[in-house]
Amino acid sequence: MSLSTILRRILKPTLPPFLGAKSTKQQHSLPDPEELPADAHSFPAGVVVFALTAYFFSSALPYWKPLTWWLLVTGCGVLRLWVIHRTHFDKMTEQERCWRLRALIWMYMAAMSSATYFLYVPDDIAMLSILTLYLLGNATILIAHLTGVDWMRTFVALLILGVPNAIHLIIDGITMDQRVLWALGCCSLIAPIPFAQISAVQSRLMRKQFESRLQAEGAAKAMSSVALAKSRFFAAISHDLRQPVHAIGLYLDAIERVVAESGNKQARNAVTGITVSWQTLNDLLSKVLDLARLEANMEKPDLHPLCLASLIQEVVLQHSSIAERNGVRLIALTKPDCWVYADELMLKRVLSNLLGNAIKFAPSGSTVAIAVRRSLNQWRVQVRDAGCGIAQADQALIFSEFVQINNHARDPSQGLGLGLAIAKRLTELQGGTISVRSRAGAGCCMTVTLERYAPASAPIPVTPANVAPKNDFFNADTRAMHGLRVLLVEDDVLVGGAMLQLLQSWGSRVHWEQTAEGARRYTLKYEIAICDVRLPGKESGLTLATGLQAAGKRVLLITGETDSESRDYAAQHNILLLTKPVSPRELKSALETQINSPQ
To answer: Which positions ≥6 away from 290 have C-beta within 8 Å?
Structure first.
């Protein structure tokens, strides 16, 4: 290696990221410890140490020598602080700041090494030994300070601190025939070599740790990006996935009626199998898309005070028919003053999932209880059943995706293994926790813990206006639909054809348009409009629905989107909103609600 190369490596100016470096390379490299700005908080302690050192040596030297050394070191330190913290320093170019900072650091080192002259006590072996140890101690601190710098600059810095004193000791030891002095000098002269080696080893370890951290961060970011891209992909295509599933469900109603009239048992069994398969696909699609939205952080909670008693009562009523069919007794133990701070729709989904699981796994003739318990500043909602229970080893797995403990054959009638994973994430979004307490063969207790809310006066619980009612059983009576004039606005040919056929089979008079512009020409001729949210052209189904509502028409919105914007918009304008896939019974129930509601 040539002398010019060595000098370039020793004097090369580099600026660490925290001093204003903007380049990508510098932002992803270790900061140069030699160029760290002086710490104004630790400098006063250093000044005191220097003063005590000067005071110690003043007992063996004229006072002006230790004082001069103290003033020189302190002055260089103050000058360094003053230059670095000036506004002018920040306005310099990157290259100018590098050289200015480098000059200040080397000047400070030279001031420290001047102790070889100002604190040197001739013929006093004890004081000279203390001086040597003091300089070697400073060299050790310097190694810690310069860890991360290449070994050549560290070695030069150590030479500046130790070599002048070493040469002075060796010369005096030879001229005065003092073996101790020249031995100390030799030690001081050789010490920079092992010190530099130690610094080089520490620098390599530091760089390896830094590179490992960068690789780990890069891998974590890559995995996070892949997961986020996957979640956003599912969320983005949810509309296209829901459309054919929605159309299949609508066509099934007509097929069921035709098969029922034919009396063909084989055809009836086939239709039953298709219906069950459609329901399974619908459930799987909804839960996978819900999970994708949660992973993509697209689901935002709307937290406000909620009365647990009324919410639990509503959830129990929704599951009462299923419990009766399974021979299970439902009990709700609540209090009128139990209020929590949560999202009503999210909490309903969580409790419905837990209650549905409890009913499904509870043996016939047993009891499922949902109770509210107080715990410090929280309320605990517990769902208890007398089912098969969960073994201790499996309890940590049940909140993972697609995990079903007692369904190794993957029977879809027993669920999909997504409900508890979604319930856990929805609970955590509301700032709560969900836990399980169970033993194999001894039932299960699922607990949702939420922040307690103590209102000054009990607010009136509000049911969201954009939630469509759902019936557990389909009422075959379609007399309310006979003669109903319906304007259908749907751009998808498959879905539009299915809805047109279904509505006409109920006796309704339907006109189908695919754009908002075309639908506006027929608004006066029809009693109720069914609008898809996503429409071609400049106008969406949301603006069309509000326009029709302002004109005094009843409106029903249907969407395949999973974002909260459509839901919030519908709630704000008090418009009923259904999310695809929509079964015939849901559509019929929603239309009946609109027909019977006052305008």
So the answer is: 299, 418, 422, 562
- CATH superfamily, domain 304-451, is Histidine kinase-like ATPase, C-terminal domain (3.30.565.10)
Cα–Cα distance for residue pair 504/488, rounded to 1 Å? 12
pLDDT in tens, 277-329: 777 677 667 766 666 666 656 567 778 888 888 888 888 887 888 888 888 89
Cα 569 to its chain centre, rounded Å, is 26
291-329: string of b/e by CB count within 10 Å (b at 16+)?
Answer: bbbbbbeebebebeebbbbebbeebbebbeeebeebebe
Query: Cβ contacts of residue 106 below 8 Å, gap of 6+?
Result: 160
Query: Measured between alpha carbons, how far is 419 from 425 in angstroms, rounded to an integer?
Result: 10
Give the least confident one: 130-144, 197-211, 399-413.
Answer: 399-413
Token couple for 584: 């015939």
3-state SS record for 45-96: HHHHHHHHHHHHHCCCCCCHHHHHHHHHHHHHHHHHHHHHCCHHHHHCCHHH
Comparing CA positions, the residue from 560, 545, 561, 547 lying closest to residue 594 is 545
Query: What are the pLDDT digits (tens) for 376-412?
Result: 788 999 999 888 888 877 777 787 765 666 554 444 4
Closest CA to 105 of 65, 146, 163: 146
The predicted model scores a pTM of 0.44
Residue 528: which H helix or E strand, with range?
Answer: strand 528-532
Token code pair at residue 572:
């704000």
* Long-range contacts at 567-570 (CB < 8 A, ≥ 24 apart): 567/466, 569/542, 570/465, 570/466, 570/542
How open is the CA angle 79-80-84, to the nearest 5 degrees? 115
Q: Which residues contact 419 (CB under 8 A, 6 or more apart)?
A: 287, 353, 356, 357
- CA distance to 314, 458, 463, per residue, from 338 (Å): 15, 10, 17
Q: Which CATH architecture group holds 479-596?
A: 3-Layer(aba) Sandwich (3.40)
